[in-house]
Design brief:
CATH superfamily of the largest domain: HUPs
Bound molecules: pantoate
Structural class: alpha/beta
Shape: globular
Number of strands: 9
Order of helices and strands: EHEHEHHEHHHEHEHHEEE
Strand order of the largest sheet: 1-4-3-2-5-6
Helix content: 40-55%
Radius of gyration: 19 Å
């Protein structure tokens, strides 16, 4: 695995990959890598000749300075983890390499960015889209591999690629869960044992929704949301939002449409924000 920190060097490598007609899968990350990232890397390797992973904690997508300061970082372990997953290039630019003085551009994907996560984290998706678009311009991948745990992020990036006519195939990888159901997330490392136990109410609530839809035929969003609220409320966890939305427009829907619906949840536990979702 080659570690690259300069944009110029990465662009030289990309030029050579293009000259030799190699397909490139790109996995953008903010480090603190876990098994979920490992699966993204595997999917990248399965779909392209070369897999590039980036590790860049993008300050522009944090609307809370404390959250940025506390974000888990473990660059040496991340490098070893990527190497063990057969990654070919590990791109880890410094902050001022990505955003040199005078950097002014930002990318905004309309109303999709201001709902849900956008309401609780204003400017978050502007930061995400700005960095992802810049990384895509540097790496010029044929495939972009991203996790579906961040469902809204996935939908927004997909929309951006379509709007900007970018010929990149997006691969969405289903959320990986621990045995007890907790969705893998870099932020899990920040949970105390007690809060981690409490966090299990999220996947339990999503499982309950599946049960109600699939086994009891309940499709009414109001009823399903009530079931989520009581599952989360009784666990003593602060629910930021629970919404049942169209999987493409992210607009709330009155009734679940099988095959076309996301159920999205965001909670706060002991100051840590966790999100999860399920597709129905
Ligand atoms: O999902 C993430 O880890 C980040 O939002 C991403 C896509 C790497 C952009 O910084």
């Amino acid at each position: 695995m080659q570690v690259v920190t300069s944009i110029k060097k990465m662009q030289d490598i990309v030029r050579e990959l293009k000259r030799t007609q190699q397909t490139v899968a790109f996995v953008p990350t903010m480090g603190a890598l876990h098994k979920g990232h490992g699966r993204l890397m595997e999917r990248g390797k399965q779909n392209a000749d070369v897999c590039v992973v980036s590790n860049f904690v993008n300050a522009k997508q944090f609307n809370d300075a404390e959250d940025l300061k506390n974000y888990p970082r473990n660059p040496e372990r991340d490098k070893e983890f990527s190497e063990a997953h057969d990654v070919d290039y590990y791109f880890a630019p410094a902050d001022d390499e990505m955003y040199p003085p005078g950097f002014l551009t930002s990318v905004n994907v309309g109303f999709l960015s201001s709902r849900l996560e956008g309401e609780f984290r204003p400017g978050h998706f502007r930061g995400v889209c700005t960095v992802v678009l810049k990384l895509l311009h540097i790496i010029q991948p044929t495939h972009l591999v991203m996790g579906l745990k961040d469902a809204q992020q996935f939908v927004i990036i997909q929309h951006m690629l379509t709007d900007l006519c970018m010929d990149i195939k997006m691969i969405g990888v289903p959320t990986m869960r621990d045995r007890d159901g907790l969705a893998l997330s870099s932020r899990n490392a920040l949970l105390s044992d007690e809060d981690r136990q409490k966090a299990l109410c999220i996947s339990r609530a999503l499982k309950r929704v599946h049960f109600l839809v699939k086994k009891q035929g309940i499709l009414h969003s109001g009823e399903l949301l009530q079931a989520i609220r009581s599952a989360i409320g009784t666990a003593g966890v602060e629910l930021e939002y629970a919404e049942i939305v169209n999987k493409t427009t992210l607009e709330p829907i009155d009734h679940v449409v099988r095959g076309g619906t996301f159920v999205l949840i965001a909670v706060r536990i002991g100051g840590i924000r966790l999100i999860d979702n399920t597709r129905i």
